[in-house]
Amino acid sequence: MAQPHVRRGVKVGEAIAQDIVRKIGAENLQPGTPLPSEAQMIEEYGVGRGSLREALRILEVHGLISIKPGPRGGPIVAQVSADTFGRMSTLYFQAGRMTFSELMEARLVMEPVMARLAAERRDAGMAKTLGAIAEDTPLDDDGGYLSHSGDFHRFVASMSGNGMLDLFSGSLGYIFHERVSGLFFPKARRAKVRQAHAEIAEAIEAGDADRAEALMREHMQEYATYVKRRQPALMNEVVGWR
């Protein structure tokens, strides 16, 4: 029996959860991979059903596994996503009374840095895809415009080559847009946004890190100013747990 190493002050359920996460990483288990059954893990760890279920519940709440119901069900490795991380983060943001103004400020710091990194670490194929996302952004279709705009920023984050920045920025973007759903530039100004995205993409493709960073900062500052003007009370609102 592989008893989990339990550090002082850590519950058995938490120690098992930590061990399961280590195994997922060490064995490079992909999303959708079934984990051993409850009975197998009880035998493996030599613990009671309550401790094991506590461990699985911890991982499920944090979005690292899902539980498939039914006789042939059980724990399955989940896809780590910025949305899940964002929802989890809102609990701490609310407890710490952090505001949307602070969230926006964090995005204003992170997004230009990621644009710089994307240019410094540019991948020719990804840069062309980024340019196509900007070029293909529809102006008259609200859903299409919002989808392409979000895809553009997420793709820049992925091009940064920094997984933590990618995850953090994606989670902040998710939280913000969940709260201000439907608040985006009016159709009359969308062409300017599309042009800004195109120029950022061109700077990244050219490997011009200074220009990519400056353009992204200008673009994000313009959006922040627009949101503050349209919803001034939002900036002092505490981020709520979702």
TrEMBL record:
| InterPro entries the UniProt entry points to | GntR_C (IPR011711), TF_FadR/GntR_C (IPR008920), Tscrpt_reg_HTH_GntR (IPR000524), WH-like_DNA-bd_sf (IPR036388), WH_DNA-bd_sf (IPR036390)
GO MF terms listed in the record are: DNA binding; DNA-binding transcription factor activity
Pfam families per record: FCD, GntR
Nucleotidyltransferase recorded as keyword:
no
Q: Which UniProt keywords apply?
A: DNA-binding, Transcription, Transcription regulation
The HTH gntR-type domain sits at 10-80
SMART domains, per the entry: FCD (SM00895), HTH_GNTR (SM00345)
Q: What is this protein called?
A: DNA-binding transcriptional regulator, FadR family
Q: What organism is recorded for this protein?
A: Actinomadura madurae
